[in-house]
Amino acid sequence: MAFKNSLEQYIKKNLKNRVFIVSSNREPYSHTHTANGIKIIEAVGGVHNLLNLIAQVSNGIYVAHGSGDADKEVVDKYNRIKLTTDGKSYTLKRIFLSKKEIDKYYYGFANQTLWPLCHAVFVKPIFDQSWWEMYKIVNRKFTDAILEEIGEKKAFVWLNDYHLALVPQMLRASGKDIKIGTFWHIPWPTYEIFRVNPWGKELLMGLLGNNFLSFHRGYHVQNFLQCVQRELEAKVNFEPSKVTFHDFITKIDSLPAGIDYEEILQIKEKPLTTSKSFLEKEYDIEIPYIAIGVERLDYTKGLIERLKMIDKFLEKYPQFIEKFAYLGVVAPSRQHIPAYRQYSKEFIDLVEKINWKYSTTKWHPIYLINQELQRKKILSFFKDANCGLVTSLDDGMNLVAKEYVLSCQAEKGILVLSKFTGAARDLRYSIHINPYNIDEGAEAIYKAITMPSSEKKSRNLKMREELKDRNIYKWAINFINRTLYD
Ligand code: G6P
């Protein structure tokens, strides 16, 4: 726990006179009605886990959209609830939104305008004036909730992601003494893509209310600076990167997020069900070579391409029939959006087609778990999977890739990784692919499962050194430090 302690100490020392607030759209825990009463559910996914840890360690206030159907019933009159995990507690303050607000702000502007605009995956963003208006209204709601918690005190506010782009400037306009940092977890597009957004200027101005704005990779920083240079009358500095706008300076840099190295090693010691035992238990099959993938069912993740790679691999190397299986954990996501529903349908159709093409009496190549799984369960699945597959067409970071490298057995597993993920730069010794190149992907799967143990081990150990060194707590310290000090 040495890494966690160092963040705790850093915060105690540097933030003692400021209220610590973390905010993101998605709440770390939601409450829901079940037959046995109200149940608390933890959000899954790399980013959520990471923010939850930060809030715990900082003993701060987490401001987020209350999305659970029982959320309202458990909060106090200020919409707060105290959460305690691992003996540490923090306050979750919930913002409640109407269906119309959720539709236009979350499903509309955030996920049908900004999400496809920022990911270079050839899905056209939709520009709808009423979504934009609602995005402003909901950003104002977040701002007001944060200001309510700050009161007359000094504060440190850590904002997360593309749902809250206007909050920094709104907070700044309050005139209070607040240090504001935003971490933008998804890519930032090139100017040629960004310029089609009718409200691009306002978004940039919103983000220039930050003391510090961070992306995962340097190329996203460069893209952002170019957008500012072309759209605003601002002074743009590339080395070191900062923007001066209306006499206010925003520092901009890349800080690639890391993972919780120590926590993962702990889970690895005592895993729950692993991939091999899962397939044995549920399907009564013993598979020598297992590939695994874990993600939300999202068109940016290259899931259709991945299936085509598996198809090509089995076509070229039929000796792996009955010896290879792909275990896909796919969490349904944003299903109210037509593009997601369409993508899910295509995905399921293709799974069915490939399974039918190769199936024998007791085996088929693709096994799906269509639900969100607890983190511990996922990390345990990684342990004996021979190959991790991350095939995103564009991805800000992809923490799952990093988690696989640390969770697998060093001499048994190896990661096949899209070179279009932010993680590719940190995971240099994984097998890199262009996910659009299906043949290359099929060969990569072959290479992964036939790679000698000694080579897997040496590649994994080299990557693990870096994962240890650039762990999540160091990342958080860097982010806070850059936001606090000039
Ligand atoms: C992905 C992105 C995150 C983002 C999250 C939102 O995980 O990488 O940057 O915050 O999606 O997911 P949600 O399920 O809340 O739409």
UniProtKB/TrEMBL annotation:
It holds the Pfam family Glyco_transf_20. It comes from the Bacteria. One of its GO terms (biological process) is trehalose biosynthetic process. This is Trehalose-6-phosphate synthase. Belongs to the glycosyltransferase 20 family. CDD domains: GT20_TPS. GO terms for molecular function: alpha,alpha-trehalose-phosphate synthase (UDP-forming) activity.
